[in-house]
């Protein structure tokens, strides 16, 4: 019996301590939490410039397999590791979930979707180019627009504010729940619960 393909969950972010707490790295936060929940640790993958952790969502032979990914290429080249790992694990686009920050959504709100544009997000643009399709899933974590005249690029590369950090753990937890819900129940069911209008 052939084993079902795993889910490839790509948390988008930038490697290195100087970026670790940035808004742009919320995808890494969510990937880290999913690894923690499933009791696995990240390690460098031999076929891709990425930290990878393989897990199961639940117990038993039928529990869905997860491949959690944190690309180590910097955001604008994230697609290379995502494409290499999708080939290595034979994952179709319908089972690839990009988890990322989103400027066009108010802070802490989630939007779940498949396909669509990249909205100026360099990580998504790189994934679409490398995978040669837009038809992968996205869990979009709202970081809101920058205040005043701050450049959006500077805004996403800055840390969450003290006020935002009060709620951040809860919001990251909810985003990880949303990823699990997509894997367990499918996009439509997950949207009903976690997609904020």
From TrEMBL:
Chain sites annotated for binding tRNA: 19, 74, 76, 122
Entry keyword annotation includes RNA-binding: yes
Catalytic residues of the enzyme: 24
CDD domains, sorted: PTH
One of the protein's GO biological processes: protein quality control for misfolded or incompletely synthesized proteins
EC number of this enzyme: 3.1.1.29
Pfam families: Pept_tRNA_hydro (PF01195)
Site entry: Stabilizes the basic form of H active site to accept a proton: 101
GO molecular function: peptidyl-tRNA hydrolase activity; tRNA binding
InterPro entries to which the protein is assigned, alphabetical: Pept_tRNA_hydro, Pept_tRNA_hydro_CS, Pept_tRNA_hydro_sf
UniProt site positions, description: Discriminates between blocked and unblocked aminoacyl-tRNA: 14
Location of the protein in the cell: Cytoplasm
Catalytic function, reaction form: an N-acyl-L-alpha-aminoacyl-tRNA + H2O = an N-acyl-L-amino acid + a tRNA + H(+)
Keyword annotations from UniProtKB, A to Z: Cytoplasm, Hydrolase, RNA-binding, tRNA-binding
GO CC annotation: cytoplasm
Its biological purpose: Catalyzes the release of premature peptidyl moieties from peptidyl-tRNA molecules trapped in stalled 50S ribosomal subunits, and thus maintains levels of free tRNAs and 50S ribosomes. Hydrolyzes ribosome-free peptidyl-tRNAs (with 1 or more amino acids incorporated), which drop off the ribosome during protein synthesis, or as a result of ribosome stalling.
Family: Belongs to the PTH family.
Subunit relationships: Monomer.
Official protein name in the record: Peptidyl-tRNA hydrolase
Gene: pth
